[in-house]
Amino acid sequence: MSLARAAAGAALAGLLALLGCSWFSASSSKSTSAEACPTAVILRPLAQTAVFGPGPERRPENVAFYGILSEVNLKCEPSGDAARIVLDTVVAVERGPAARGDTVDLQYFATVTAPDQSILRSPPPQMVRIEVTGGQKRAAVDDHIETTIPLGGHKASDLNVDIGFNQSPEVIEFYRRFRGR
Known about the structure:
This protein is α+β, with helices and mostly antiparallel strands. The protein folds into 2 domains: about 1-30; about 30-180, Immunoglobulin-like, CATH 2.60.40. It is built from 3 helices and 9 strands, in the order ααβββββββββα. The strands form 2 sheets. Strands 1, 5, 6, 7 and 9 form a 5-stranded mixed sheet that branches. Strand 3 and strand 4 form a beta hairpin. The longest helix is centred in the first third of the chain and has 28 residues, at about 1-30.
């Protein structure tokens, strides 16, 4: 009987610990300034890209690298009609069958939009170089951007920072035909 009681006690303690963690981490991770920040959004149709090898066909066997925007974290400090933002974006790549080198350059955008989807700021595209060394199949980098964005008379929390890969027509057609990998 004491073994059953100990197991039940351990299960209850574990459950309370999990519940306590979720309560505390949720309340402590949301500060007043975090609530006043824009929302960072990876646009799903533009979250993946492909870099093709030298062959003329745009088929899965001619992909040198696949790129993926996998995570984004935004912090900010509103000040008047602007906000200073820090944006960390995880950009990952995977070797494709046509990969010949160890590095790939990818380009993505981070555009600030108002609630009506109008563009408030569209800075130049971000260039990211990722090295996939040795026998590795995948690699990732955390790309870090710090900038000040105009609020255009809006509250910072009403804005979005839309993130996606710049896609060529051939990449769009590739994903339309093959739905990725």
